[in-house]
C-alpha cells in the first residue's frame, strides 16, 4: 500500500505564494507520474499539473506561468510552487501518484489540503 501526506496549504493573500509538498511512502518500487489536482467549491476535480518520472511536465492553462511542479525521486516527493495566487485558486488540492504494481498501475491519492486565497 502507498500513503501520501500533503503539506504546505493554508491561507494566503492574493498575489502571494505557497508551496505544497506531497511525500509518498509504503510499498514503492518506483513512481510513474506524480500530479496535483484541485477541487474548488461547486466544481469538478481538475488536473492542474503533473510530472513524469523523466521530468516531463504538464500544466492546466489556468495555472500555466504561475505554478511549477517538481519532484525529488530520492525522497518520493512532489512539490507544487504556487505564485501569483488568485482567489479563484481557492480549492482543496490533492496529490496523486501512479505506481506500477505487478501487471498494472495503481493510482493513489492524498486526503487533500486546503488552499485559501483571500482578496
Name the features.
4-stranded antiparallel beta sheet, single chain, mainly beta, 119 residues, elongated
Structure description:
- It is a single chain.
- The chain is mainly beta and 119 residues long.
- The chain has no helices and 11 strands.
- It has strands at 2-7, 10-13, 18-26, 34-39, 46-51, 57-59, 67-72, 77-82, 91-101, 104-109, 113-118.
- The strands form 2 sheets. Strands 2, 4, 5, 6, 9, 10 and 11 form a 7-stranded mixed sheet that branches. A 4-stranded antiparallel sheet has the order 1-3-8-7, with no helix packed on it.
- It is elongated and about 45 Å long.
- 31% of the residues are buried.
Using only C-alpha atoms, the radius of gyration works out to 14 Å
> DSSP strand (E) fraction?
over 45%
Uncertain regions: pLDDT < 50 for 5+ in a row? none
Largest sheet: 7 strands, mixed
Terminal Cα span: 40 Å
Helicity, as a percent range: under 10%
**Global outline:** elongated
Number of helices: 0
Structural class: mainly beta
Summarize the structure.
The chain is an all-beta fold. The chain has strands spanning 2-7, 10-13, 18-26, 34-39, 46-51, 57-59, 67-72, 77-82, 91-101, 104-109, 113-118. Helix content is 0%, strand content 58%.
List the helices and strands and how they pair.
Elements: E1 2-7, E2 10-13, E3 18-26, E4 34-39, E5 46-51, E6 57-59, E7 67-72, E8 77-82, E9 91-101, E10 104-109, E11 113-118
Parallel strand pairs: 2-11
Antiparallel strand pairs: 1-3, 3-8, 4-5, 4-9, 5-6, 7-8, 9-10, 9-11
Amino acid at each position: 500500500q502507498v500513503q501520501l501526506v500533503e503539506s504546505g496549504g493554508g491561507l494566503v493573500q492574493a498575489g502571494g505564494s505557497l508551496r505544497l509538498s506531497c511525500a509518498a511512502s509504503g510499498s514503492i518500487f518506483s513512481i510513474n507520474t506524480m500530479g496535483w489536482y484541485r477541487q474548488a467549491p461547486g466544481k469538478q476535480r481538475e488536473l492542474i499539473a503533473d510530472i513524469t518520472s523523466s521530468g516531463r511536465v504538464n500544466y492546466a492553462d489556468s495555472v500555466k506561468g504561475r505554478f511549477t511542479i517538481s519532484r525529488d525521486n530520492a525522497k518520493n516527493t512532489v512539490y507544487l510552487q504556487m505564485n501569483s495566487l488568485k482567489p479563484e485558486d481557492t480549492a482543496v488540492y490533492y496529490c496523486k501518484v501512479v505506481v506500477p504494481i505487478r501487471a498494472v498501475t495503481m493510482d493513489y491519492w492524498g486526503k487533500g489540503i486546503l488552499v485559501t486565497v483571500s482578496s
